[in-house]
């Protein structure tokens, strides 16, 4: 069968990230971003082969950006595009797998929007624009939450009054599911195990960070919850805090709910702790020069990550390996080694040379011989979305 091409689209509140995924090639033939949509500085930037290019699209919206993208996609595929895969953050309890988009699925994504007020409306704008620009193509939604719909009830329920769950959907949903699913399959391949008969801990460490317990190819627990704020220390997000912090800040500082939400989402995490940056590279450099805030931020990040992994282990019958992925997980030997130092009881130990070697897209084992497996596995959410899209076209 000739190789097929899928355009993968990930819409933010004023941006579209896109990647053309070809079955036959591990590299994306075309990828890029349309940014600042709706503003005078709206711009489409892309990379094809080694060449970079850009186009200003003043006041261009999602539709304009996708129309401008069309000829680029046609050139890169020789006119053979087989479908479009959309990343949708929240699928609620309704969607346990990818869905071919039709009016009913779109209405359901809209109904779930109160759970992801920043993300689902943007995805819907992208879906509607893509349907009008590419009306003849099948389109598929792939949800960040759907992988975690296999969590048992004791893992997804909060200890709050039952009607909040029943009537308002207050429960743990989890995110980064596409990444945890992709890397756990790759880890099983690398280890020569069957994904259907193996157990993994996975740490996705990017700007957002989460852990996941994966048993026989299914998510059994994950660190993010109702929203992507729960769990680990992240770039600008606090992760777990005492829920009474809200009341405390309101009564002692007079902060509004909006202000507290903004601080916990945008001013906390690595940025808040270090007082310097949300970027792990910058923090590692500052730590080298003895910056106390950067040093502390890294210590807290790794300790909290290790604690979360230890907690996730409650969902596993055995541990076939720990997976590191995401920008930090794939590139930071320091963070991997500091985290593993806190997990000695799991018989985890790092091989220094292998750890230093596995950066910039290099996958592989980094554990000491005779110890529990630790793997670095670069994530590829775009490829997973394309695979899910293709599976629904078959
Ligand atoms: P996103 O969640 O936005 O997709 P990424 O997965 O690209 O983000 O991860 C971004 C994070 O990865 C940033 O904190 C960045 O500093 C970190 N990172 C990238 N390269 C390195 C590196 N060589 N060493 C340490 N951290 C790195």
What's the CATH class label of the largest domain? Alpha Beta
Structural class: alpha/beta
Strand order of the largest sheet: 5-4-3-2-1-6-8-7
Q: What string, H for helix and E for strand, traces the elements in order?
A: EEEEEHEEHHEHHHEEEHHHHHEHHHEEH
* Helix content estimate: 25-40%
The bound ligands are: adenosine-5'-diphosphate
Give the DSSP E fraction (strand runs of 2 or more residues): 15-25%
Bulk shape: globular
Q: How many domains?
A: 2
- Count of DSSP-assigned helices: 15
Report the CATH superfamily of the largest domain: ATPase, nucleotide binding domain
Overall CATH architecture of the largest domain: 2-Layer Sandwich
Task: Offer a quick outline of the entry.
With 394 residues, this protein is an alpha/beta fold. 39% of the residues lie in helices and 19% in strands.
Description:
With 394 residues, the protein is of the alpha/beta class. It has 2 domains: 5-143, Nucleotidyltransferase, domain 5; 192-381, 2-Layer Sandwich (Nucleotidyltransferase, domain 5). Helix content is 39%, strand content 19%. The protein contains 15 helices and 14 strands. It has helices at residues 62-77, 103-112, 120-133, 153-156, 162-168, 177-191, 245-253, 257-266, 269-274, 280-288, 292-312, 326-331, 333-341, 352-357, 381-393; strands spanning 5-11, 16-22, 30-35, 43-48, 51-56, 83-88, 99-100, 139-143, 199-205, 209-215, 218-222, 321-325, 364-365, 374-376. The chain has an 8-stranded mixed β-sheet with strand order 5-4-3-2-1-6-8-7, with helices on both faces. A 6-stranded mixed β-sheet has the order 11-10-9-12-14-13, sandwiched between helices. α10 crosses α11. The chain is globular. The two termini are 12 Å apart. The mean pLDDT is 96. Bound molecules: adenosine-5'-diphosphate.
């Amino acid at each position: 069968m000739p190789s097929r091409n899928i355009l993968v689209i990930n819409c933010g509140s004023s941006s579209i990230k896109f990647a053309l995924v070809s079955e036959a090639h591990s590299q994306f033939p075309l990828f890029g971003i349309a940014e600042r949509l709706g503003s005078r500085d709206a711009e489409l930037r892309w990379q094809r082969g080694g060449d970079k290019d850009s186009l200003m699209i003043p006041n261009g919206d999602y539709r304009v950006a996708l129309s401008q993208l069309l000829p680029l996609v046609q050139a890169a595929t020789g006119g053979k595009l087989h479908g479009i895969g959309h990343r949708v953050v929240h699928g609620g309890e309704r969607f346990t797998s990818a869905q071919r988009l039709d009016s009913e699925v779109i209405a359901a994504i809209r109904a779930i929007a109160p759970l992801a007020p920043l993300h689902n409306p943007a995805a819907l704008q992208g879906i509607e624009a893509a349907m009008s620009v590419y009306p003849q193509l099948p389109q598929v939604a792939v949800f960040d939450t759907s992988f975690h719909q296999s969590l048992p009830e004791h893992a997804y329920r909060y200890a709050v009054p039952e009607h909040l769950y029943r009537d308002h959907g207050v429960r743990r949903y989890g995110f980064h599911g596409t990444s945890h699913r992709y890397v756990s399959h790759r880890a099983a391949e690398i280890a020569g195990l069957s994904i259907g008969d193996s157990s993994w801990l996975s740490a996705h460490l990017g700007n957002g960070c989460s852990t996941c317990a994966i048993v026989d190819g299914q998510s059994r627990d994950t660190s993010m919850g109702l929203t992507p704020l729960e769990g680990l220390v992240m770039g600008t997000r606090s992760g777990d805090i005492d829920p009474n912090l809200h009341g405390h800040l309101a009564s002692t500082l007079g902060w509004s709910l909006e202000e507290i939400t903004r601080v916990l989402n945008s001013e906390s995490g690595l940025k808040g702790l270090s007082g310097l940056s949300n970027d792990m590279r910058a923090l590692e450099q500052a730590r080298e020069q003895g910056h106390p805030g950067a040093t502390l931020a890294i210590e807290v990040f790794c300790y909290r990550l290790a604690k979360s992994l230890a907690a996730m282990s409650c969902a596993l019958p055995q541990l076939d390996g720990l997976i590191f992925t995401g920008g930090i997980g794939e590139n930071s030997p320091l963070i991997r080694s500091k985290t593993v130092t806190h997990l000695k009881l799991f018989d985890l130990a790092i091989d220094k040379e292998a750890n230093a070697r596995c950066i910039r897209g290099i996958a592989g084992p980094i554990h000491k011989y005779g110890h529990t497996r630790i793997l670095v596995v670069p994530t590829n959410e775009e490829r997973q979305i394309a695979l899910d899209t293709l599976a629904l076209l078959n």
